[in-house]
Amino acid sequence: MSRFLNVLRSWLVMVSVIAAGNTLQSFRDHSFLSEKLYTAGPGLVNGLQARTFGVWTLLSSVIRCLCAIDIRNRTLYYITLFTFFLALVHFLSEVFIYHTAALTIGVMAPLMVASFSILGMLIGLQYLEVEALSQNKKKN
Q: Of 16, 51, 87, 111, which sits most exposed with the smallest number of CB within 10 A?
């Protein structure tokens, strides 16, 4: 396995662990979301919304961790890539369409993580292609 894919796997595990921590925070105290993320519309954040956000974040965390474990699984790889696109679109829409979030560090961090992850995973696709081609050549 290439060095880049190993770094990508480590990145996915790290992002997954951080997301799991955010999940716990969402279940423990919903004011976390209004203080860190949805600062432009804190009155819209309630316990139900926080728990829903927590479940969504937990699902993303599990998917990303599983991809790190089995990075050659194409279906899982694309689903993981989609989780980052979904997060990017969500936070951008909250800032620019719904105006419930402001461009604070609390929102910039997930935007940067999603953007860097998308870029890394798109580059990783090239490495997976090269590995697949070399495996086919060895079989022939």
A: 51
Distance CA 80, CA 51 (A): 22
- Cβ-count burial of 23 within 10 angstroms (0-12 exposed, 13-18 middle, 19+ buried)? buried
- Which pLDDT band holds residue 120 (cuts at 50, 70, 90)? very high
User: Under a CB-based contact definition with an 8 Å cutoff, are residues 91 and 110 in contact?
Assistant: yes
Amino acid of residue 93: S
With DSSP H G I counted as helix, E B as strand and the rest as coil, what are the percentages for the chain, rounded to 5? 85, 0, 15
**Amino acid letter at 110?**
P
Nearest-angstrom CA–CA distance, 123 and 74: 14
CA distance 66 to 123: 19
3-state secondary structure at position 71: coil
Q: What residues have CB less than 8 Å from 72, skipping those under 6 apart?
A: 128, 131
pLDDT digits (tens, 9 = 90+) for 25-45: 999 998 989 999 999 999 999
Six token digits for residue 138: 């060895």
In the chain, the largest separation of any two C-alpha atoms, in whole Å, equals: 63
